[in-house]
Amino acid sequence: MSLRPLRPGVPQCSVQTLASRLPLVLLFALCGTTLAWGAEEEVSFVRDIAPLLTRRCTGCHGPTKVEGDYRLHTFAALQKPGASETPTLTPGQPEQSELYLRLIDENESTRMPQLDDPLSAAQIALVERWIRQGARDRKSTRLNSSHTVISYA
After folding, report:
1. At a CB cut-off of 8 Å and minimum separation 6, what does 79 contact?
2. Where do the H-state alpha helices sit in the chain?
């Protein structure tokens, strides 16, 4: 049985032709879905990390109070070691970054924040992801690395 084109000049596909192409269509659909699920959104310093540090850390490590000779009220200050002289951030390596290690420390006397509850698992995971992604400050053109990006209200 031959199918007649619905529109003149446009060939009609048979059921067999469609069935033979279905696995290829499904493969492309599944690959696209897998790539979308595997894509990890980039963590933004200004959008994600700075507000977290503002709420949880600047009370002791800000422009006025400086515990452990460490400040993190600007991105530039965040990168400088405190009294321990241990690198605060090792981009791509949270396990080598003092900031991350202090957040996950089980010892209450060295875990940060000290005078408050620990960060939630989701907050720690966000900091870890940011460091793993390179601990960048993808700032807008209005900000520079020494500009105060963490506000104090």
Report:
1. 88, 89
2. 15-38, 50-56, 75-79, 98-104, 121-132
Amino acid at 1: M
Rounded CA-CA distance 69/115 in Å is 17
Residue 61 burial class via C-beta count within 10 angstroms: exposed 0-12, middle 13-18, buried 19 and up: buried
Q: How far apart are CA 11 and CA 48, in angstroms?
A: 54
- β-strand partners of 66: 61
How many angstroms separate the first and last alpha carbons of the chain?
A: 78
92-114 confidence digits (pLDDT tens): 999 999 999 999 999 999 999 99
Q: Give 15-55 pLDDT, tens digit per residue.
A: 565 456 555 444 444 444 434 455 679 999 999 999 999 99
> For residue 74, what are the β-bridge partners?
148
Q: What is the pTM of this model?
A: 0.67
User: Residue 11, Cβ neighbours under 10 Å: how many?
Assistant: 9
Burial of 131: CB neighbours in 10 Å, binned 0-12, 13-18, 19+:
buried
Size of the chain in residues: 153
